[in-house]
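JOB MANIFEST
job_type = single_chain_structure
chain_count = 1
residues = 132
[input]
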Amino acid sequence: MKRVNTISLSFIVIYTMNMESTLSFYSALGMEFIEEQHGPSNLVHHACNLGSIVLEIYPYQATLLNPENKQKMVAESRFGFNVTSLEEILCNLEKLGIKSKLSSKVKNNEQRVSVTDPDGRVILLTEISSVD
């Protein structure tokens, strides 16, 4: 019998050209970040635990990424988060001047909203009854 590997997502890294705005955006979604500095680059970055997944936000550095690929990198990045209160999050984002776009209703009458982070990434928020 062939062995099947079990795989799960452990971390996501976002590169940003505007650390302050990006941290404010993701904090408005309800994430709490701590400052870290480790690894070969030794760059100061911010990390947040999302259950078993770590989200890290690093400053964009031309030495790490080709500046000509920045638009492609952002355009190909898209995230989805399950949340328990869209109303609260949209209020937090409105205070930052970020507008939302209501998406279609999904199963069980859940609502989805699309927002754009400071670097242009589309973020899909889906309201559910509880987040694990």
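[summary]
The chain is about 20% helix and 35% strand.
The beta strands are 11-16, 34-37, 44-50, 53-59, 78-83, 101-102, 112-116, 122-127.
exit_status = 0
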